[in-house]
Amino acid sequence: MSSQENSEENLPSEQGTAHGAVDTVDDPFADPGLPAHKPRIQDIDERAAKRSERVVAFLFTLSMLATIGFIASYVIFPVDKLVFIFPFGHVSALNFSLGLTLGVALFTIGAGAVHWARTLMSDVEMPADRHPIEAPAEVKAQVMADFAAGAAESGFGRRKLIRTTLFGAMAMVPLAGVMLLRDLGPLPEKKLRKTLWARGKVLINMNTNQPLRPEDVAVGSLTFAMPQGLEESDEDFQTQIAKAALMIVRIQPDNIKDKKEREWAHDGIVAFSKICTHVGCPISLYEQQTHHVLCPCHQSTFDLSDGARVIFGPAGHPLPQLRIGVNGEGNLEALGDFAEPVGPAFWERG
């Protein structure tokens, strides 16, 4: 379609002659202005304003009560107490009460602030023209002068006692939050260094639950053992077996290279921790010809004929050995605990 065929109604109402400029009658971007302000009922009725004030005060009071409930729940409910709450089922009474009270405390503060702003604070529209963000030089100079004057008047530079105690107070306050880390769990104390093995503890075959005798361990075989007195029905069985799990291997005494290993063995029967020293996986793969054991998680390999030293993989140190002997009844028994902590290294390992 040519320009001549355009209808006149689509052409500008007025055309200028200078450089083809076009002047329009109506500004398409004219400021529409603001609608007339409508007062709220609280602005014209003091009783309504009082009601809103009471609602805000009620929400803030409820927040305070919820905070008190949070503290009381922390003190009252034991960590292991379970309660049935529909529809969640059995949940921790402590966790549920802490979450509920803290949620109510935070929500009511927010709800109270929003209700306060929407009903009682001024809502008159106050338009302002945009201006450069950067302050003029004279304003900057005035601000710096006022700051210097305020600092001088406060005596912060001269009052060393106030300055020192202020810094001390600000540094001490975060310690209150650090103290909460104490409740992340019980202190490990020396539990990571000790196991249930002790002098006189009989080695119990984990497959038969019977005491192990030297004749039960054939050359080239791999047997798993646990301390006498530990039962699978015990509440802390998993915690204890994770440190005390033992693997028993019988090697020809002449094939044992490490002198200490030979002394701590009984007639070629050696006992090493089953827990890998990399990340704590249970070791279960044994190669008879080489006397190597392999951790299935990350392929750390240990030589059981040479003090269980690491010959491949990411493990950082050998498997701890348990010194064993035979008691008067002919059963294999421990002659003490492991000489070093079992499993992966930890930050206070000595």
Compressed to H and E, one letter per element, the order equals HHEEHHHHEEHEHEEEEEEEE
Q: Indicate the overall shape.
A: elongated
What structural class is derived from the secondary structure elements? Answer: alpha+beta
- SS strand fraction: 5-15%
Largest sheet geometry: 5 strands, antiparallel
Please give the share of residues in helix: 25-40%
Calculate the terminal CA-CA distance, rounded to whole Å: 92 Å
Number of strands: 13
Determine the number of helices (DSSP H or I, runs of at least 4 residues).
8
Strand order of the largest sheet: 3-4-5-6-11
- Parts with pLDDT < 50 across at least 5 consecutive residues: 1-8, 11-22
Mean pLDDT: 85
- Structural Rg: 40 Å
SSE layout and pairings?
Layout: H1 41-44, H2 46-76, E1 82-85, E2 89-92, H3 93-119, H4 137-154, H5 160-172, H6 174-179, E3 203-205, E4 222-227, H7 237-244, E5 246-250, H8 259-264, E6 269-273, E7 285-287, E8 292-294, E9 301-303, E10 309-312, E11 321-322, E12 324-326, E13 332-334
Helix pairs in contact: 2-3
Question: Could you explain how this protein is built, in words?
Answer:
The protein has a 5-stranded antiparallel beta sheet. The protein has a 4-stranded antiparallel beta sheet with strand order 7-8-9-10, with no helix packed on it. The protein has 350 residues and is an alpha+beta fold. The protein has helices at residues 41-44, 46-76, 93-119, 137-154, 160-172, 174-179, 237-244, 259-264, and strands at 82-85, 89-92, 203-205, 222-227, 246-250, 269-273, 285-287, 292-294, 301-303, 309-312, 321-322, 324-326, 332-334. The chain contains 8 helices and 13 strands.
